[in-house]
Amino acid sequence: MAREQDLDLVEVADKADPPVCRIMDYGKYKYEAAQRAKESRRKTSQVIIKEMKYRPKIGAGDFETKTRKVSHFLGEGHKVKVTIMFRGRELQHPELGRKILDNVAEAVTDVGRVEVMPRVDGRNMTMVLGPDKRAQADKKRKEQQAAQAATAPAAPAASEQPAPARAAPAPSAAAPEPAPEPDAAPAPAPAVETTPEPEAEPVPETTES
After folding, report:
1. Interval 23-68: pLDDT, tens
2. Count of CB atoms within 10 A of residue 23's CB?
């Protein structure tokens, strides 16, 4: 029957009684099975564990740089193993390493959370951080809100709003009276001619002898 249909007779259950066989195109079946396996591998997310090492006496600049890297790894969806390396007598002060681990966990609360609490592993102290999808979503939403608030035009303040324009007064029906002209300057008085009186002739004096 399979030969008549130009197909293959494939045994699918050899342990059954009687064995179970199936008529199919075996080449097509293998191809489809390979495609399904490839698709499932593509959808499977691979979680990679990164590692970041600190020292108990690390400086502030190095601490910020390494912690920024840890936050970047968590944002990409990776787990991060934070390791504190002790040397010599530093093993007698594990509280220094614990303080650094607590500071790292606090600095990345917006993208990750602690999955494995700090513990001593030989001469090291380790802690495992994992990505926190909810915290990352909240951070992204806040960033979008801040960006929208920055681009939105600011509303004018109450003190800066323009005052309503006042209506111009209606013109009066009666024409305005003309303003009085200033008084003219008084004319100068006419000049009066004066005739000089004639001088009296002198009277000769008589002398009695």
Report:
1. 888 888 889 889 988 888 776 666 678 999 999 999 999 999 999 9
2. 14
Contacts of 45 (CB under 8 A, 6+ apart): 77
- The H or E element containing residue 120 is strand 112-121
Q: What is the pTM of this model?
A: 0.51
Q: How far is CA 27 from CA 7, 10, 13, 35, 65, in A?
A: 10, 11, 19, 13, 55
| Cα–Cα separations (whole angstroms), residue 174 to 28, 76, 165, 171, 181 | 107, 86, 27, 9, 21
Spatial distance between the Cα atoms of 100 and 84, rounded to a whole number of angstroms: 8
CB 56 within 8 A of CB 90: yes
Distance between CA 86 and CA 179 in Å, rounded?
104
| Record: fold of 49-142 | Translation Initiation Factor IF3 (3.30.110)
Delimit the domains of the chain by residue range. 8-43, 49-142
DSSP string, 128-191: EEEE-HHHHHHHHHHHHHHHHHHHSPPPPPGGGSPPPPPPPPPPPSSPPPPPPPPPPPPPPPPP
Distance between CA atoms of 67 and 106, rounded to whole angstroms? 10
Q: Cα–Cα distance between 84 and 55 in angstroms, integer?
A: 6
Per residue in 175-196, pLDDT (tens digit) is 556 555 555 555 555 555 555 5
β-bridge mates for residue 131, sequence order: 112
